[in-house]
Amino acid sequence: PDLDTPPEASDALRVLHRVFGYDSFRGSQQEIIEHVVAGGDALVLMPTGGGKSLCYQIPALVRKGVGVVVSPLIALMQDQVDALRALGVRAGFLNSTQDFDERRLVEAEFLAGELDLLYLAPERLRVESTVRLLERGTISLFAIDEAHCVAQWGHDFRPDYLALSALHERWPDVPRIALTATATEATHAEIASRLKLQDARHFVASFDRPNIQYRIVSKDDPKRQLLTLLRAEHGGDAGIVYCLSRASVEKTAEFLVKNGIEALPYHAGLDSRVRAENQARFLREDGLVMVATIAFGMGIDKPDVRFVCHLDLPKSLEGYYQETGRAGRDGMPSTAWLAYGLQDVVQQRKMIEGSEGDEAHRRRLSAHVDAMLALCETVECRRVQLLAYFGEESTKCGNCDTCLTPPESWDGTVVAQKLLSTVVRLKRERGQKFGAGQVTDILLGRKTAKVIQFDHDALSVFGIGAELREAEWRSVVRQLLAQGLIAVEGDYGTLVLTETSGEVLGGQRAVSLRREPEKKPAARTEKT
Ligand code: ADP
Ligand code: ZN
Q1: Minimum CA distance residue for ligand 1 atom 23
Q2: Residue 305: what are its φ and ψ, rounded to 5°?
Q3: Interval 312-365: pLDDT, tens
Q4: Whose C-alpha lies nearest to ligand 1, atom 17?
Q5: Minimal CA–CA distance to 322: which of 297, 354, 291?
Q6: CB atoms within 10 A of CB 29
Q7: Position in ligand 1 atom list of the atom nearest CA 26
């Protein structure tokens, strides 16, 4: 790069210009780099795309010795190292994909002082020979990338990360910098304590990604809703579509391809070669859509991802925010679009009930779903709510669906009472369990086979809810769930009362609901 650097500029700035070819530091990069260059420990919390890599790469180049980077992203190490080598940085990696000779070569380079950066998979550090190798060289710093992987109940937990706390004991004088895009207070605290980073300085960047437009819609025919969105707003754009299951990944990718959109599947059940090839194509070619489970995406640096869509409710806001953060790293307008429905909540509750771990763990998972639900059903700015979850105060963003088309609120107290009274009536029928479908049929006065079978047409509540359409009732159920005024249980999503249901039934509590936007009837033009 032919940028002029004044002679009095710091070493860090010179490296930024000469090696990376950038004009200036972004956000708190400079502060972080200076702190680490001076030998301090750091915990860096920056959103995806914020520029975390330079925070350890530059100190590694400025300080004497080799910067050791611990990263779980084995599949990306080759690419990362190639990219650095293209800039003239002497980088190498050690992981399980290499054969003996390849490893020997990197080890020799390390010992000869011919490396600036050495990327390591965390499990390498559990191998005594690796530790001995490191002890024979000079280490400038340890960078622990994706540091939230040490958080035991987090969504990306890697047991090998727990062993990283030993780094400090073996190399007390080598600075450590832990980096993550996961933002909650609880995760920060857990990272600091598990990695023994009590004395580290914390650098917390704003997590706002103003160029990403957040939108959440209620799900009726998700594949078709997705197709409509892509055709209307994202023709020819690259993007990621997340689905919960491998089967729906396959089906959705097929559906998009049939409808003229170039899409590739990605999930852990695919052959690793196919996975690697699809990932490589997504990174290199323009305008591909990756349909994936959450197995895809960590560490992917593709600046022009124009949309991230979720066809199922994510398990937590932390996961959701990281996934959507993969859109628009280049700062250009991008879309984060989520379709969710009652069935998602039922499914998640079922998964939590059947999950391993103790009661406290299940409670935590439930709390995560509740926070997700609250975001979906809010009438306030989505971004304000998201950032608030991550401890950041902000004002109405003007670039989310609720800011752009403020949902109308209405007094749903009577409607909620009707629904809850129906649930109460059904509860009295011992042994039988009924979900939202049956409740809605009763409210609407529908004589379905199941309604007749259980004599539900004889209930006093039969037909008392004719003022709302079926979709509106479904929305009411979701909102009551989000407000904690009702709950779902078991495999069939049985509706049950909560501690606060009684306040609504007894008239001590008013319920405010958001109105479902009218669905524009869209022409059916897709192939199925
Ligand atoms: P993160 O790891 O936080 O997700 P990266 O380190 O991959 O983010 O950086 C995101 C993008 O921003 C990369 O393409 C990187 O080259 C670019 N970038 C980082 N810092 C700067 C800077 N100071 N000036 C210009 N571009 C930068
Ligand atoms: Zn907003």
Answers
A1: 25
A2: -70, 115
A3: 999 999 899 989 999 998 889 999 999 999 999 999 988 898 888 888 888 888
A4: 51
A5: 297
A6: 24
A7: 23
Global pTM value: 0.80
ipTM for this prediction: 0.98
Give backbone dihedrals phi and psi of 525, rounded to 5 degrees, phi first: -125, 5
- Give, in order, the Cα–Cα distances in Å from 53 to each of 91, 148, 179: 13, 16, 9
- Going from the Cα of 65 to the center of ligand 1, the distance in angstroms, rounded, reads 24
Report the relative pairing of strands 212-218 and 305-310 from DSSP bridges. Answer: unpaired
> Residue ranges of the alpha helices (H) in 137-258?
159-162, 166-170, 185-194, 222-233, 246-258
Burial class of 253 by CB neighbour count within 10 A (0 to 12, 13 to 18, 19+)? buried
Query: Ligand 1 test: best mutation among 54, 180, 321, most atoms within 8 Å of CB?
Result: 54
Pick the atom of ligand 1 nearest to 47's CA.
3
Strands 117-120 and 66-70: parallel
Rounded Cα distance, 432 and 186, in Å: 41
Closest by CA position to 483, among listed 427, 432, 409: 409
From ligand 1's centre to the CA of 181, what distance in Å?
13
- From the CA of 395, the nearest ligand is 2
Q: Which amino acid is residue 147, in one-letter code? A: A
Q: Is 329 in the pocket of ligand 1 (CB under 6 A)?
A: yes
Please, is 247 exposed, middle or buried when counting C-beta atoms within 10 Å of its C-beta (0-12, 13-18, 19+)? exposed
Give the chain's radius of gyration (CA, Å). Answer: 26
* Per-position DSSP letters for 330-370, written without gaps between them: TSS-EEEEEEE-HHHHHHHHHHHHT-SS-HHHHHHHHHHHH
